[in-house]
Structure to design on (258 residues):
């Protein structure tokens, strides 16, 4: 039973789900005052994200074998696609308890994730990074439940951070992606070039959050990420980036409660 649970959590990429749910929570807390709908934001964004990454797992067996030296059992048995469908449909169902904007962005997230995985768009240069940054981060808009210039600015900022996270994961998975012919920035332009690009993007993100007074609290995270990248510890850098999403959700929840 413990092994089954472990395989399932790996199948849905539970850790990434938590990071993205926190983006959805942040979007909600920034632009809403009613706490009642927050639970539906959490459930819907988690289920849709889990469905997206579970489906991606079913189409990524080659690179998973190269990077992780194994293929998840749910990818190889008949339950995999059934679970994916159940996760997507459940996530859409719970979005109907939210605003029409949330429903739209939930459906958009499902369509984008299926398109990305089904057509293996990650094989095209930079598509994987843009999907992770700006596609997966649609949960922010699902959480916000509305659309305006101000919401768009915050969405783009968190999408940039998710984009950087995807780029750092490319450094972490460099060897496996190279063997699988996945054209990430490090594979296409070289490991050191990929790292320098991340340094520039971290600098842009750090400068950008200075214009958002309620986000300055996040400034230590890009500095820590920069440091560990400099030390060639991409895995630790990626962990700190994911932690920034969790901290952001917690911080705005505290501010909301106060």
């Amino acid at each position: 039973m413990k092994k089954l649970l472990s395989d399932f959590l790996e199948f849905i990429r539970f850790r990434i789900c938590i990071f993205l749910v926190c983006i959805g929570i942040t979007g909600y807390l920034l632009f809403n005052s009613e706490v009642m709908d927050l639970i539906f934001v959490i459930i819907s964004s988690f289920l849709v994200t889990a469905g997206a990454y579970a489906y991606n797992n079913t189409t990524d067996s080659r690179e998973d074998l190269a990077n992780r030296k194994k293929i998840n059992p749910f990818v190889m048995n008949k339950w995999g696609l059934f679970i994916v469908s159940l996760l997507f449909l459940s996530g859409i169902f719970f979005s109907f308890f939210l605003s029409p904007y949330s429903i739209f962005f939930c459906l958009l997230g499902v369509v984008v994730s299926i398109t990305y995985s089904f057509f293996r768009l990650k094989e095209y240069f930079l598509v994987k990074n843009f999907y992770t940054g700006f596609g997966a981060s649609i949960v922010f808009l699902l959480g916000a439940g509305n659309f305006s210039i101000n919401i768009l600015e915050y969405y783009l900022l968190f999408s940039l951070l998710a984009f950087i996270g995807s780029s750092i994961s490319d450094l972490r998975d460099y060897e496996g992606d190279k063997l699988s012919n996945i054209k990430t920035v490090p594979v296409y332009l070289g490991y050191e070039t990929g790292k320098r690009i991340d340094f520039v993007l971290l600098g842009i993100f750090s400068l950008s959050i200075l214009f958002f007074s309620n986000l300055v609290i996040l400034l230590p995270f890009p500095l820590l990420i920069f440091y560990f990248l400099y030390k060639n510890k991409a895995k630790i850098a990626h962990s700190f980036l994911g932690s920034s999403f969790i901290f952001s959700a917690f911080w705005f929840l505290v501010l909301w409660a106060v």
